[in-house]
Amino acid sequence: MQRQSGWKLKTKEDIKEIYAFAEGYKDFLDRAKTEREAVRCITGSLGENGFTTDLTKDRAFAVNRGKEVMAYIRGSGDIAEGLNIVVAHLDAPRLDLKQNPLYEDVDLALLRTHYYGGIKKYQWVACPLAIHGVVVKADGATVDICIGEKDDDPVFLIDDLLPHLSRKTQDEKKLADAIDGEKLVLLFGSLPLTGTEREPVKQYVLKMLKDFHDISEDDFITAELEVVPAFKARDVGIDRSMIGAYGQDDRVSAYTLLKAFCGIRDPKRHCLAIFTDKEEIGSEGATGIRSAFLKVFLDDIMAGMGIKADEALVRKVLFRSKALSADVNGAVDPTFQEAHEKQNACYLGRGPCVTKYTGHMGKIGASDASAEYTGEIARLFNKEGVIWQTGELGKIDEGGGGTVAKHLAVYGMDIIDCGAPILTMHSPYELSNKLDIFETYRAFQVFFAA
User: Fold this and answer.
1) What whole-number distance in Å separates Cα of residue 112 and Cα of residue 102?
2) How far apart are CA 37 and CA 27, in angstroms?
3) In degrees rounded to 5, what are phi and psi of residue 194?
């Protein structure tokens, strides 16, 4: 385990390799700002690396409703002895457009939103935003939407109250209450449609949507449109050692898992990479890890191997599996160090954090890995020279959080959390360290090969 900066152990050539790896990660972040976009990036890369949707093959994958991917590599051993599994999630905190979002007020066209996941609402005002997603039209056709990412695209904004007028409205409130959820309203347009008396600005916006995107107002009802920061991933620091970007929780794990998995050749144990959805809201729904997709996928994989996969066999395979829950942890914040118990916290630049237990307060909602499995992972990483650390998510009574680990632990498999530490988690612009990203990738590599 690393108790000082991992950069001290790296040569100049190592640092060049780490920085080069980070360039691909930044590109992924810019192309995968929603779970659907992430799935398209992941499946494209899997295809380029010999994976197929033919589940009888040795390298195969399947997609669940465009938002979740499971990929498999056949090992030389008996699948009944279990799998090596790494699971990461693709969703990130954001704002979703409501199903009936568009209205006009004070000569402006506006869009109502509903926030998704745990956000600090005040962080989402007065910053450039983009709209991504899909519209399903009345005839069943789909229209992909992405506005605000190109250099010549317009961006969108949620306005904030000027300090001259905010004393009673905002300043005397608690920080968490300064911005009400219903006030996260997107400014969408201001030009009126000539010759129209009733809601002329709204009507002009609808005309533009119809002319340029073939979308009507009713199409919002059957759409999934996400509002995300319009920022690009950028190097941070004079030494370019860090990365600032939206959605690094948990796309840093998704990218490192993807790169590690694609590089695996001829493993002994069968390997499974899971890129799941809905973690930020409790892994609920048809595309979260709690859905039946995992068992359905394993049924199909074993059928492709000529194995009759009854419920008892699937249950035994999952029970004997070993897994990493690939998710980020909160690094010690230099400005708010008092939120951490620093002896048991993780730090930027010391490699991925292996988190034995999560949860909040008295480990409520936690997955708590056994000492034996924690020791097994520690020995593996130490043997292979992976730079890693351990840590909790803040002081005991400060709050805490959870991951998908507990939802896989119910099958009886060994599982432990392992992922890069980041700063400003769940904000529109999260911060990671390039060394941690690269060592997370190496950690997943050696785990699959074990």
Assistant:
1) 7
2) 12
3) -60, 135
Cβ atoms 262, 35 nearer than 8 A: no
Q: Are strands 142-147 and 359-360 parallel, antiparallel or unpaired?
A: unpaired
What are the C-alpha distances in Å from 251 to residues 35, 275, 407? 9, 10, 19
Q: Quick one: pLDDT at residue 269?
A: 97
DSSP string, 263-323: T--S-SSEEEEEEEB-GGGTS-STTBTTSTHHHHHHHHHHHHTT----HHHHHHHHHT-EE
Do residues 85 and 324 touch, judged by C-beta distance below 8 A?
Answer: yes
In the numeric block, the tokens 């005040």 are attached to 122
**Two tokens at 346?**
């993780």
Strands (E), 28-121: 59-64, 68-73, 83-89, 94-105, 108-116
Task: Give the span between the Cα atoms of 398 and 361, in whole angstroms.
Answer: 8
Q: How far apart are CA 337 and CA 316, in angstroms?
A: 44
136-183 pLDDT, tens digit per residue, is: 999 999 999 999 999 999 999 999 999 998 988 898 899 889 999 999
One DSSP character per residue, 9-44 reads G--HHHHHHHHHHHHHHHHHHHH-SSHHHHHHHHHH
Q: Where are the beta strands (DSSP E) in 106-176?
A: 108-116, 129-136, 142-147
pLDDT at 54 over 90: yes
Segment 20-30 shows an average pLDDT of 98
> Residue 257: helix, strand or coil by DSSP?
helix
pTM above 0.85, yes or no: yes
Burial class (CB in 10 A: 0-12, 13-18, 19+), 37: buried
φ/ψ (deg, to 5) at 283: 60, 30
Tokens at 129, concatenated: 């935003």
The CATH H-level (homologous superfamily) assignment of domain 6-92+246-449 is Zn peptidases (3.40.630.10)
Report the DSSP beta bridge partners of residue 244.
234, 431
User: At how many degrees (to 10) do helices 35-48 and 248-262 cross?
Assistant: 10
Assigned architecture for domain 94-229:
Roll (2.30)
Mean pLDDT computed over every residue of the chain: 95
Q: Where are the domains of the chain?
A: 6-92+246-449, 94-229
